[in-house]
Amino acid sequence: PSLARILSLGDIEVVARQTLSSKAKAYYTSASDDEITHDENARAFSRFFFNARVMRPVARCDPSTRILGFNSSIPIFVSGAALAKLGHPDGEANITRGAAQTGIIQMVSSNASLSYSNIMDAAVSSQTLFFQLYKHANDTIAAQRVREVDALGYKAIFLTVDAIVAGNRERDIRNPWELEDEEKGAPTYWSENDASEKEVDGMGTAGALIANDDRDMTWEKTIPWLRGVTKLPIVIKGIQCIEDAVLAVEAGVDGILLSNHGGRQLEYSLPPMEVLYRLRQKCPDIFDKVEVYIDGGINRGTDVIKALCLGARAVGLGRPFLYAQSAYGAPGVVKAVQILRREIVTAMRLIGASTVDDLRPEMVERVDWQPR
Ligand code: FNR
Question: What range(s) does the FMN hydroxy acid dehydrogenase domain occupy (predicted)?
Answer without folding.
Answer: 1-369
